[in-house]
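Same chain as my last thread, 586 residues:
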Amino acid sequence: MKAPLPLRPGCEPVELLSPAENLDESGDGDLGTMAWLSAGVGRPRVIIGTSGQYYILASRLTCTVCKKYWFADKPQWVDMLPSRFQNILPAFLTYKKALCKTVLDELRRTGKSPNDMANQLNEALHLKYERAHLAYLSTVKNVLDGERGVYGQRTITGAVRGTTTPAPFGGYGDANGWCGVTVSAHYLVECLIQQYHRQEDTLNYLLQGTFGQALRADHTRKVARKVVLASGTMSSYAVMNENWMILSWVMLQSESDKSLEPMYEGLSHRYISAGIPKAMYQWVDRDCCASFNIPNPGPLEHLDWDSWKTTDAIAADATSGHLINTCASRSKFNNNISIKLDLFHCMRRFTRECVSEHHPLHSAFCKFLSAAFTVVDQTDLQRLKEAYVFCGIEPANPTKQHIRQHCRTRVPPPKELLERVEGVLHRFHLESDPDGVPLFKPSMLKMWRIQRVHILRGCLSDPVLAEGIHYRHGGTVQLNHVKGEGAAVPVWIPVRGTSQQEGFHYHQAKWVTGTVVSTELFQAQGMMGVARWNFQRLLDLKLPGVRLPAVFDPVLIMELNKLSEAVTGQAKYPFLRVSQADTGER
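reply #2:
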């Protein structure tokens, strides 16, 4: 049985086929004897699009066995259609309304909140109504002007018509006129959640198919504050690889290692199932080594520089005993993994102990502290200076931005790092502004003693590797767009640290719109955002010989690869092929 569905003007018509395998609604029909017949004129269904509303028509069908009637655009029947018909259907059908697929695409792509998107759609719908009303009044005025002879010749329509009052155009929601609809934010939320459930398995497979050899893990409460649960406030925890792609993202009720064990067990099973060597290095924001206790200093102890110095006894005490912690990544993922403390979080703990970021000495302290923690590779620096000379830039003093992009840096070994940081603290110890306000808070002394233990234990120093500093090559660029090999400088992308996680947290907070959301909407927006984040990181890699689509729709791309392989023998995007082996991670 066919039910013609005219689409928008200019589009090819679509025929919606009634599913031949359906049972009737009572569930007791006989498939061998059931027959579907047309039962009169169908009904129009309004579809809400980004530029207005349009209609489709659905046939009214009946079953010769149970004598029941239904319309062919009922969502449960549409879901039973073959995928080739579902793909060409332009709308996402619900019980009463229908939402054009372009609206859901726009909602996922732009990251707008359902409220903003509903306001945008309602404005577009009302604009179309007001413009139609204007066109109607302009047409009526044109007819009246013709009857009065404005255009040089009077028409006879005025003599035929009995009244000069035009028929009213009608209101926006007039059922016998314009029949306009209104979109609510709750309706968009329900459609988005249903669309996520259709893509949930594919999104999980995409996430489970991501691996890495250098992990970066970080906690945050920025996005976790937006979801309210009966168990209280939760924490968001994400694991990122060296290419800034998310391997796993979970919500934690507690920030203890116990709550992370199921996630790292799933990661371990993922690597074992795929036969890929496990990551050997991980940067974290805390809990990098065994726990230790630092007593509170005396009230005026911070004024004496001798209490800041590092003695041999202090160094021996910090580096003796059991130094390795039993965190979840070591106990459940890889026993031999090397865990490092992120440099960004360490430096931020120092800057927090300044009186104010507006203190006149604050910027100088941050500059010296950053220079103390990292050492620029002299080979890369010399190459950059030569590029400056080649480009005619005098004097050849590379800027901080160029050094960050084109020169690798390393965190020196514990002994050297301790001397460099302690020298900076000595330089700014008891320094104050012209008003006598000191730069350091009294609590800076305890913070230094805590971070000193991490420095002595090597939690911050770069691991000694045969391949050198932990960077990946990002290609080459021409300095100042000057042509020639002399102006070609490499781009180095850091692997160490969790600084990129902060950017992920910022985008994550934008994906989950609003201030308070439901758990279903939180999961839908969060998982869709993570999938788009990973896809964008693949595009940013610009791998040679790798073909990637310009748009990202996981279900569409997976089905396209599957059918392309079945028809042509080769997937259209082989790099985005996903294994159907579910590792069980949740």
